[in-house]
Protein: Proteinase inhibitor I42 chagasin domain-containing protein
Amino acid sequence: MTRQRPALTIAADRDGKASVALPEAPATGYRWELEDAALACHVAAATFAEEEGKAPGGAGNRVFSLDLQGRATLELVFILKRGWRTEALERQGVTVSQHSP
Structure:
């Protein structure tokens, strides 16, 4: 059964850029990805940032750099799953809104 994490709301900067950081432990084989691949065009980059002082492969955050591409709001769902499995362990809803001047 997939666990639903509490939804996040993030404000993009004036250029429509924002970042989402989700906790991840690569050694488990679980990795965050977008549930809807059609929205992947809004992900400018996805990187992993290890926690300082931890062993390589330990816990850290998967950081997604987003671009609204002119949209006022973007609704995304990220899933935490193993690449060889179809069912996700967790789902994370994220709403990104354009910064109001």
Q: What stands out?
A: The beta strands are 3-11, 17-24, 30-34, 43-50, 60-67, 73-82, 90-97.
